[in-house]
Write a structure and sequence with these properties.
- The protein is mainly alpha-helical.
- The protein has a domain at 20-220.
- It has 15 helices and three strands.
- Helix 6 (86-102) packs across helix 8 and helix 8 (146-161) crosses helix 12 (223-240).
- The protein is globular, with a radius of gyration of 20 Å.
Length: 305
């Protein structure tokens, strides 16, 4: 799809998506993400405990990524709550869904992507494994264009796409214990392995999700990983017709807002400098500005005030 048509597609897809609330993200996440569902998905991941354990000693299955992501989302929502403004929720979901629809860089996830606005004035973006992506109201209201909103979502989607969460989870104490248990099952008898799965997998996966969510909010993914997500996020923006430099623009100070960045991310000036080589070749919208007017009108109507 060439640049002009990609620009028209971006405007058309976003305008054509039906409005919906964030209930698909909230739903019954809190209190239901850990337990029996983890047991079911653990057993569904392979034909038996030994095969499943061997696979998960090195990599989570797509199903487990999804349920881990649900548990992370539950922790994040319990901590902040969801922004009660329906129009802002719908707007963010439409932008996110448009990026998913048009990007050739994003891999599919077991449960699809889910987007929501968190009820806090802190400026941050948070993502969990399996496709759960959040932007805080504080970050959203600091944006000065739809492209900047898309940039924050694309950065968090890049974390999901690059599977950054799994690498962090496995370094945690609970993640290390999970891996050790999986290796123990591989080395043991099938019936003993089956019993160990039934007794320990739900609790360990729930603990991993809780540890990851807490660490993510308090310390972030880490400098190198954040810079990698910035780079991939710029490519996702370019790929879908948004301005690839929008992330850098968001991070730069303007008379309307102080210079800041996501909470627990590298300093804004470091991220801006790291993006310069990418933007030298890919800066600006893929569509040549075709959809800019439609984006400006939507942004002004929903967030401009």
């Amino acid at each position: 799809m060439n640049g002009v048509w990609r620009g028209f597609a971006l405007a058309g897809v976003l305008l054509g998506l039906t409005a919906c609330s964030a209930s698909d993200v909230a739903g019954n996440l809190v209190g239901s993400a850990v337990g029996g569902q983890f047991s079911e998905v653990a057993r569904a991941a392979a034909s038996g405990p030994i095969e499943m354990a061997r696979q998960q000693a090195t990599k989570f299955s797509p199903e487990q990524e999804y349920y881990l992501g649900r548990a992370v989302a539950a922790e994040v929502i319990a901590r902040y709550g969801l922004d009660p403004n329906r129009e802002r929720q719908d707007y963010v979901r439409k932008i996110g869904a448009s990026i998913v629809e048009l990007s050739s860089r994003l891999k599919g996830t077991y449960g699809g992507y889910h987007f929501a606005v968190l009820d806090t004035d802190e400026a941050n973006g948070i993502s969990g494994p399996g496709g759960f992506v959040f932007i805080t109201r504080g970050a959203l209201m600091r944006c000065e264009s739809e492209d900047e909103v898309a940039a924050i979502l694309a950065h968090e989607m890049a974390h999901v796409n690059l599977q950054h969460a799994e690498s962090i989870i496995r370094k945690q104490k609970s993640g290390a214990a999970f891996g050790k248990m999986m290796m123990g099952i591989v080395a043991g008898a099938a019936d003993a392995g089956d019993q160990m799965l039934a007794q320990n997998v739900p609790a360990l996966m729930g603990e991993m999700a809780q540890d990851f969510a807490t660490g993510l909010v308090e310390t972030g993914y880490g400098r190198a990983t954040e810079l990698e997500a910035d780079r991939e996020g710029a490519f996702i923006l370019y790929d879908t017709g948004y301005d690839a430099s929008a992330l850098s623009q968001y991070l730069k100070a303007s008379p309307k807002r102080k210079l800041d960045t996501w909470a627990n991310h590298p300093p804004a000036e470091v991220r801006i400098q790291a993006l310069e080589p990418v933007l030298a070749d890919y800066g600006g919208p893929f569509d040549g500005g075709v959809g800019k007017q439609a984006r400006e009108e939507r942004f002004a109507r929903i967030l401009g005030g």
